[in-house]
Amino acid sequence: MHKFSKRSLTYILTAALLLTSACSAKSKDIQTLASSTDKAQTETNESVASETGTEASKARIKLIDALKLKDAKGAEFDKGTLSGKSVLVTFWTTWCQYCKDELASLNKIAADYKQNDKFQILLVNVTNSNSTVEMATNYLKENAIDLPIAFISQDDASELGIPGFPFNLVLNQEGNLTKLVVGDKSTQYFFGATEEQLRNFIKQVAEA
């Protein structure tokens, strides 16, 4: 299994990242590894360019391997259930209203793809004292959200360079990162997107 460095993961995610107005971390524990300044974005792009064909490109091989996911019981999440599928991975927390709005829309949309064995929506709850495994599972149950869920620690999420929530990325059938869906209102897909916008985006991913 390829070992991913914090540096290469950050470059990969921030290279395509248009910074968001989403629910941002309020504590120092979740560090935004991407900067909102033009200078930092330029430095990131230059760093990615300088690593073409080396560390950055190798890390693209299997981003799914870098996600340290657990199930609700704390055991390693079975990534084999995602094999051969395009996967929309949504990182969320229970304290983020943007996340809750998006989950409600995704739950409706997912019903259209239950028979599609080549596409999967995976919810990844970022756990800390304000968003525990129990809180996340209870929220899904109380709101009848029928989507698979995995968990990642706050520290491991930080290493991926996640700047705010919800944070979405798309993995293709080989487990490679193909899209980031993070943006603010200057992008095509932004937080506060309508259900129709989300539906159209997912259609593109699922039918690719």
Query: Terminal Cα separation, in Å?
Result: 27 Å
The total tally of domains equals 1
* Total of helices: 7
Q: Count of DSSP E strands?
A: 7
CATH architecture: 3-Layer(aba) Sandwich
Compute the gyration radius: what is it? Answer: 16 Å
Largest beta sheet: strand ordering: 4-3-2-6-7
For this structure, the CATH topology is Glutaredoxin
Strand content: 15-25%
Helix content: 25-40%
Give the CATH H-level superfamily: Glutaredoxin
Largest sheet: 5 strands, mixed
GO molecular function: oxidoreductase activity
Domain Thioredoxin: 34-207
Organism: Amygdalobacter nucleatus
Keywords: Signal
Protein traits:
7 strands; 7 helices; 208 residues; alpha/beta; disordered N terminus; Glutaredoxin
Word description of this protein:
The protein has 208 residues and is an alpha/beta fold. The chain has a single domain (55-207), classed as Glutaredoxin (3-Layer(aba) Sandwich), CATH 3.40.30.10. The protein is built from 7 helices and 7 strands; from the N terminus they run αβααβαβαβαβββα. The protein has helices spanning 6-15, 38-50, 55-59, 97-110, 133-142, 154-159, 195-206; strands spanning 23-24, 86-92, 119-127, 149-153, 164-165, 167-171, 177-181. Helix 1 (6-15) crosses helix 2 (38-50). The protein is globular and about 40 Å long. Mean pLDDT is 70; it is low at 1-8, 14-21, 25-61 and 183-191. Residues 34-207 form the Thioredoxin domain. It holds the Pfam family Redoxin. Residues 1-27 form the signal peptide.
In short, what is this structure?
The protein is an alpha/beta fold and 208 residues long. It is built from 7 helices and 7 strands. The longest helix has 14 residues.
